[in-house]
Amino acid sequence: MTGPRAVALGGGHGLAASLGALRRVTDDLTAIVTVADDGGSSGRLRRDYGVLPPGDLRMALAALCRDDEWGITWSKVVQHRFGGDRELAGHAVGNLLIVALWDLLGDTVAGLDWVGRLLGTGGRVLPMAAVPLDIVAEVVGADPARPQEVTKVRGQAECATTPGQVQSITLLPPDPPAVPEAVRAVLDADWVVFGPGSWFTSVLPHLLVPDLAAALHDTTARRLVVLNLAPQQGETGGFSPHKHLEVLAGHAPG
Length: 254
Prior knowledge:
The chain has 254 residues and is α/β, with parallel strands linked by helices. The protein has a single domain, classed as Rossmann fold, CATH 3.40.50. The chain contains 11 helices and 8 strands. The strands form 2 sheets. Strands 3-2-1-7-8 form a 5-stranded parallel sheet, sandwiched between helices. A 3-stranded antiparallel sheet has the order 5-4-6.
């Protein structure tokens, strides 16, 4: 199979859905994944080892696995999460594998490429930024007693579960460095697919990485925005499709 050079941006289940569809129409596929997760297994590994959160990267790799016995088996292995109440409880096997390769190789991109080779993926998975990020959201009504008050909430997990309405986001550190391979993939692409997914915590952060945002502006690729099928409570409750696009434009006026 051949096909256009496609790049998909996002994180979590939304990006996995895009990749699962795109890999059926092209062999030349790159996922560019958000790196702001601070909860669960990813958050623990990020805090303990100072690495990028591996969870969304793992999900993208699993989504790119083939439909044969090898791909199905390894997809299940990397997605397997330990139960119980011991030290490994809650960790996904793939998260540990990715962090182990980063530790051995000292190279984030090379480590992900090696995992992709083991899994036999039909594409490449890259982080959007070279450093772990924190999302800071401006939220209206986070305190139900003060429904009009605007406050700041820090962290992807907190932003995704706030009882208020997220208005906008910024990143810490501000102006983070992009992964050069991700920038090159966008510039060389025929198609760039943006979304679906958690709008504020998985999709929009890509627009706040300066070099990546510039590449999205300068690329000659056709750019496709995929909206969610329904608003997501905690992030975009009550949003119309038009409101999703207004928020996108507000974070990337160009």
